[in-house]
Amino acid sequence: MSELLLSVKNLSVSYDTEAGSLQALRRANLAARAGEVIGIVGESGCGKSTLASALINLLATNARVVEGSVDFNGRDILSLSAEEKRHVRGRHIAMIFQDPMTSFNPVLRLGDQLVDFQDQLDLPQREKRERACAMLARVGIPDPAYNMNRYVHELSGGMRQRVAIAAALLMTPDVLIADEPTTALDVTMEAQIIHLMRELRHDYNGAIIVITHHLGLVGELCDRVYVMYAGQVVEEGSTDDIYHNPRHPYTQALNACDPAHLEEAVATLPTIAGRLPDLVTPPQGCSFVDRCPIATTHCRNAPPAMVEVAAGHHALCHEARR
Length: 322
Fold this sequence. Notes:
By secondary structure, this protein is an alpha/beta fold. It is about 30% helix and about 25% strand. The protein has helices spanning about 50-55, 80-90, 110-115, 125-140, 145, 155-170, 185-205, 215-220, 240-245, 250-255, 295-300, and strands at about 5-15, 20-35, 35-40, 65-70, 75, 95, 175-180, 205-210, 225-230, 230-240, 305-310, 315.
């Protein structure tokens, strides 16, 4: 088994809001090993981006870590000093943010920013520019020397996303986090970014964590998948397990909503009935109980435990073993 790079243990994160303490993440667990690609999926509001932010300790100012840890190289990232966090970010754990337009300073040329991103490397400026230019070429930016002198607003959405990927890879991090890397792209650019990330996984020995609601992206790239709902990891297993043998009712419903599963044309696309629970006052039992077709009184009154339904396949459900 490959080296364990990152381990999230029983992580709970709340946001202080006017309505009260919103429990955005509840006892989440995750493990990332060298050479594997992990997918984190779920509908909007399930806690994916909060988990991604916690992995690099970039939580919002109104966020509070209630319990748990994010262990990297034997240390809890959440307990590091400001100087120690600066050393970890970029150099060891890097992130491709959801909106590449906001990842760069609009009044500085891209080349200057890519050089600055390498501040932890003891190299001359000229060599840093050469490394940046070579990385732009690696991710498919045409005429990289010319584009080094452009501003972020002068690039198309697909090119901005490629530059964001190049920026994240410049320091060859141990863990690369991609938060919704294809959300803002049209289908052509999306296909190109998926192809690029598929190539990267073959020559990149770190762990890649992809946060998305796009099941097709997960199927194309990922080895293992964590399914999230209402701030909890409700199922975890191999990509084949999640696609072909889902054991949590939410995972089953999520798969059923994928238009790729439709065999005939329909007037209305399938959806999951109901709404997410209020996470200021989460349900006493299972969070999915009001939307679940197989829920029982026991599901409403008692919180489920994470159970192993097969080797490496776990589900947070009272009915998972049946």
